[in-house]
Amino acid sequence: MSAVQFCLSAIFKIDNQKSGSLMFKVSRPFALLLAAISAGVLTVKSAAPSLAADQFFFIKPYLQLGFEAKKDSPGMDIVWFSEEAKHKWQLRYTTAKTKEGKESVAETITERMISLPGFVAPYYKVTAHIAKLPAGQTFNYKVFRDEKEVFAATGKARKESGQACRIAIFGDCGINGEGQKKLAKHIAKSDPDLIVIPGDIAYQFGRFSEYVSNFFPVYNLDPAKVLDPVSGKTSTVSSATAEANGDGYPLMRSILTAGVIGNHDIALSGMTGTNLNKFPDALGYFIFWNQPLNGFGDSKELQGKSLPYLAGDPNRQELFKKSAGDAFPRGANYSFDYGDVHFTALDGNYYMDWTNPKLRTWLAEDLKGAQSKTWRILVMHHPPFLIGAAHETEQRMRLITDIAEKYKVDMMIAGHAHCYERSYPFTFAPKDGAKTLTMPTEELVAGNFTLDKDYDGVKKTKPKGIIYVVSGAGGARLYPINQQAITAPGSYMCKWDCSTHSFSSLDVDGKSITFRQITEDGKELDKFVITK
Fold first, then answer.
1. Whose CA is closest to 285, among 359, 369, 349, 223?
2. C-beta of residue 274 within 8 angstroms of C-beta of residue 311
3. Which residues, at least 6 apart from 17, have a Cβ–Cβ distance to it below 8 Å?
4. Would you say 409 and 377 are in contact if contact means Cβ atoms under 8 Å apart?
5. What phi and psi values does residue 463 have, to the nearest 5 degrees?
6. Which of 47, 144, 206, 229 is the most exposed place for a label (fewest CB within 10 A)?
7. How far is it, in rounded angstroms, from Cα 76 to Cα 64?
8. pTM for this one?
9. Is the dihedral of CA 508, 514, 515, 517 positive or negative?
């Protein structure tokens, strides 16, 4: 038995009868650390799960859209994780309209036991639901455990139609790496109202342990503290000093963040299902994200074809399902409104058959019901169109472009290719017979393009067609661009960069969107305007 196997045997129940079942008492932060090391995705240097070492929280509070199916819900969820049960939790909050000396209380507090396959002891996911907040305003909230205040932060409420907003979008991010941290600094400086992450959220396999080691320490880290040598008191450092430190930023406790499922979020599993024997804490996506349950649910018709599905020991599958609750599998596809934008988040993984009439009807009805919104944006992990060399043959999401065009989608924003790409506005017509989805991943959907090269995003700002963006340079290793695709006749990409990490920043103000691509050094890589 190797040293790592010995350590892991102290954490996980070993299925092999010859190995026995070693159950030493170790801390769960250490357990998750060793699990990540064993997967080959974490080094000791990058570990330091500072969030897990807190006295009261395993994961500190962060803002979520909530499970409510209504697309324009005025409320939100605030979520945190604890290592202990049987505590009395309470969340109190104030807004600009709150009378002095008064506090409102979250309408519901729910606690779900997270007992993932292989872990010795469970965690406890606590969700505080606030039914209504003044749209677009900041609010202050405090978390109490057993009547003691243990956390406080300021949050931004959801914006409604008619309110301008700034949205940050970036995919392929959670590796706990330097590029990711540099980018997080400039995301924090841009002060967005909403963050959307189109897939591959926690590398390498989307495991619970990888969220703890590679995602939350960067996007929900406590502000650094300094010791005053004169008074001996500890205080929070200034924002400038915190940025210089560059380890992570307290974004998620104050800014609504939405995730979209990618291929690394399902343990790189395709048509064989996510194997919980091999990855006991896989599919962390369905544990950590509270997002609208207005997608299509489980059914015999879709199981194994157009929904994420499980493989491995049935008992492990049952443990995972109880931990995920209603979020699995419905949370893989959903939609919501923010300001003047309607977002539809789509699963583009290998098991998805977007020729299935049930799926297509759901998407069409969702977009049809969003015609009153000024803007309609589809977000997904797998781009319908790209020139990144690593994934250029994966084109299955082209199969929904006819629906997107019919219901006047303005932009499709994806990740998957670790670079930045922006297309000309265009319409696409698949050739006859091209709408049959084939497996495995090389799904070449041939068709005809009608490019709008008159649009320049500066003087001519009303595009004819959909603009396709790849914003997958969020922190993972960068991918090269296929140079031949750039110069090929009829090339549909007009901007691209694979030299630096970057994120998309959208300023939405009525009938105008100003789109900027910002690098890890804070430089403007691209800028264009869309108007109506």
1. 349
2. yes
3. none
4. yes
5. -75, 150
6. 229
7. 6
8. 0.87
9. negative
CA 256 to chain centroid, in Å, comes to 11
- Measure the CA–CA gap between 472 and 469, rounded to whole angstroms: 9
Tokens of 126: 């606590």
Min mean pLDDT across 227-236, 373-382, 403-412, 443-452 is at: 227-236
Tell me, what DSSP letter sits at residue 460?
A: -
d(CA 458, CA 79): 41
Query: What is the rounded CA–CA span in Å between residue 196 and residue 416?
Result: 14
Q: Give the strands of the sheet with 194-198, arranged side by side.
A: 256-260, 194-198, 165-169, 502-509, 512-519, 524-531
Number of Cα atoms under 13 Å in the Cβ half of residue 134: 11
Q: Are 341 and 508 in contact (CB under 8 A)?
A: yes
Nearest to 164 by CA among 509, 514, 511, 532: 509
Mean pLDDT of 158-164: 97
Peptide bond into 217 cis (omega under 30): no
Confidence class of residue 430 from pLDDT cuts 50, 70 and 90?
confident
C-alpha 381/C-alpha 470 separation (Å) is 9
